Amino acid sequence: MIDCHVHLGAEAFRHDRDVVMERARSAGVVAMLAVTEGPEELSEVRRLAADSTVALPVLACFGLHPDRFAEDLSPPPREQIDTLIEAIRRDANQLGAIGEIGLDHFRVRSAERRRAQAALLEELAQLGKELGLALSVHARSAGRAAFFGTAARRRLEPHFYCCRKLQGGPARLQMPVRP
Asked: Global pTM?
């Protein structure tokens, strides 16, 4: 079993990370895909992926969490997005996926912020296609926009992806890849 979405690089989880990883290993997990929420976590996730002394193999996934576009936050500056893209390009051969990326219509309410969020998802999905990387997609209250319809099909095909916060079960995940 592979845990395809963990936040091992987040500051909040550093104090008990070793215990969590050992519990996961004991439960049958053989590897973890560690996603980032932003550029501030890149170096820690990169370090974990290179560390052979951790309890489990870690595959790094670089992304920018979609809730960074919420109205109560300053939107991510272009420099932050460019830093992320440079890191993905530089480390592409060592990454497990691009993520965490996606759409969050629960926290992000305004049309303007949702458009910015969707534009970043589109940009990173295209980068994933170019580099042959899978996507780790967050779709909270935004499953239809993230996975269904013409724009989503164009964005995601022929990608491999795992998703977070998508309601509706496995049949919904099959829909974007059907001919």
From this structure: 0.86
The structure tokens 């052979």 sit at 52
Peptide bond preceding 100: is omega within 30 degrees of 0, i.e. cis? Answer: yes
- Rounded to the nearest 10 degrees, how much is the dihedral formed by the CA atoms of 70, 6, 97, 93? 130
One-character DSSP codes across 6-65: E-TTSGGGGGGHHHHHHHHHHTT--EEEEE-SSGGGHHHHHHHHH-TTSSS-EEEEE---
CATH of domain 2-177: 3.20.20.140
Measured CA to CA in angstroms, residue 117 lies from 7, 81, 108 at distances of 21, 12, 9
What is the model's pLDDT at position 174?
46
Alpha-carbon distance of 140 to 55, in angstroms, equals 31
31 - beta bridge partners? 2
- Span 59-115, pLDDT tens digits: 999 999 999 999 999 999 999 999 999 999 999 999 999 999 999 999 999 999 999
- pLDDT for residue 173: 45
Q: Find where tokens 């491999």 sit.
A: 160
